[in-house]
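Sorry to interrupt, but I need a hand with the structure work. Please put the record directly below this note.
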Amino acid sequence: MADPWARVTVALTLLAVDPAGLRGLWLRARAGPVRARVQDALVALAPRKLHPNIGDDALFGGLDLAATLGTGTMRHHAGLLGDGGMLMLTMAERCPPALAVRLGQALDAQPGLGLIALDETAQDGEGLAPALSERLGLFLDLDGVAWADTGPFVLPMDQIAQARARLSRVCVTDDMRKQVTGVAAALGIDSLRAPWLALAAARAQAAWRGVSHPQAQDIALAVALVLGHRATMMPDAPPPEDEAPPPPPPDNDTPAPQPDNESAQDIPDDLLIDAARAALPAGVLAKLQAGRVARAAQGQSSSGAVRKSKRRGRPLPSRAGALDSAARVDVVATLRQAAPWQKLRRAGRPDAPAGQVLVHPSDIRVKQFRAQTDRVLIFVVDASGSSAIARLAEAKGAIELMLADAYATRDHVALVSFRGKNADLSLAPTRSLVQAKRQLAGLPGGGGTPLADGLQVALETALHARGHGMAPTLALLTDGRGNIALDGSADRAQAGTDASRLAQAIAQHGIPALVIDTGLRPNPHLASLSGHMGATQIALPRADARALSATLSAAFGD
C-alpha cells in the first residue's frame, strides 16, 4: 500500500472490526500532531490508559483499603484487566519485563482484551518487549508520515458494527492457512502466532468488504500489516518473467462480481513477500532488528549496572521489612496488609480506641527502588614519545564521538594521560561536549612512559567514580613500553613490575577493561599486562577515532 496514511486508516479500521482476534496495535511514533490525529481516531474504541509503572493492585484488582477500614469488613476493587475492552499502554518502550509478561498472559487468557502500545522509541536498539510485540497483530510506524499526507479520520462505527456482525460468518480455508504459514516461514518468522494473527486480519478485511471468504487482496493486505515488521529476513525477489498481457476489460461498466470462495492460492507467495517488504518504510526493518538484538543481548543498556535502592530510583513493589534509618515505609501497603486483621485484633484488644488501625510489626512494608548507575568510560592514553601527537589526536576524536551519544546512553567520559614522569587526570568524568573539547584542546605530549602511574591514576579515578554510584570502565591506549617506575626513576624492570601489580589491582576490584595496542608491532609485555588486568586486548596500530569508538562499543556491548 503506497499511501502511508491509507495504510493507517485501514489498520485502525481492522482493529475496530476485530479487536479480540488481532489483540491490538503496536503504534511506533514520537509525540506530535500525526500521532495525536491517530489517537483521536482511537478514542472511538474507548481505550483505558496504562502507565509502565502501574501496580499489580490497579492492574489485577485488590483490597479496597478505604472501604475496608471504613466498614470493618473486607472490600475489594476490580482491576483494569478484569473489565476487558481496549487498553492503551503509554511509553511502551519503557515497559518493565514483568509487566510485559503479565499483559501478554492477559491477552492470551482474555479473548475480549486488546492493547494499543504507544512506542516512543528515540533510538535504535529500543522498542517494544517481545512478550507484547509477538502478541499484537498490527504494526504502524508514523515516523515517515508527514502532516501534509494525513487527513481527518473518524472510525465509521455504524459500518464497523455491521462488519462485526458479519465476522463470525467469515471462514478461512486450509489452503489459506498453509500459504500464510509458508510465507511467514519464508520471512524468517518463527512464531506460530504471526500467521494466526495474519489470518485474523484477513478475516476482518473480508468482513469489512462484505464477503464470506478472504480473497487474494485480503490475504496480501494482512501479510503487509501483520507479517512485515516481524520479518527477520527478506528473500530476494525473483527476476520478472514475461507475462501475457491482461485481457481487455468487458464492455459493461459494471465490474464483474468476485466469487466469495476465491482461494488465497490465486496470489503467488512471491507477491505476498513483496507486499510485506513494501509495507515498511525505509530503514524500519533494520531498526526493529537492532531492537531485537539489543533486547536479546546480555546487559540491555550501556548505562551501567542495575541495583536495588531504598531511597531513590524507579519504584518496585514494596516488601516486608523492619524499620531502620535507611528504610522508607510504604504507608498504603502497610495499611493494606493490616486491614484484613482488624476485627480479630480488636477482639484481643477491647481497650483500643475506636477508629484506630492496629498495626503489627509484621505488617510493615518498606519501599524499594531500582536505581540504574551511570557508566563512566575512562580513557587511559599514552602521551609519550614521537607518536604522541597522533595518538592523542585520535583519543580526542574518540572521546568527542562518545560524548556525542552521552545524552542518549547516559555515559560519562574521562581522560587520563601519562607522559614524562607522571600521569594526570586531564578530563574529569563529564557528559559536556563543550567542556571536553575545551579541556582536550591543549593536551601536551612527549617524554617518558610512566605506564604504572597512568594505571594508578586510572584506578583511583575508577574507584572514586564507583564511590559516587557510577560503573567505571577502562580503555588503555598504549604500545606497552613503560620505562618510568612509580617512584619516578628510569628503571624499565621496576616499571614493568609496578604496572603488573596495578593491573592485578584493577582486576581485583572488578573493573572491566580494554587494552588497545597502538604499537606498530605486537608487544608481548602488553599481552602479559592485559592478562593481569583481565582485559580484552585489541591491536589497532593505526587506530582512528571512528574505529576506536566502534571497537569500544563492540567490546562493551553498547
The domain at 4-234+260-293 is CATH 3.40.50.300 (Rossmann fold). The mean pLDDT is 78. The radius of gyration is 31 Å.
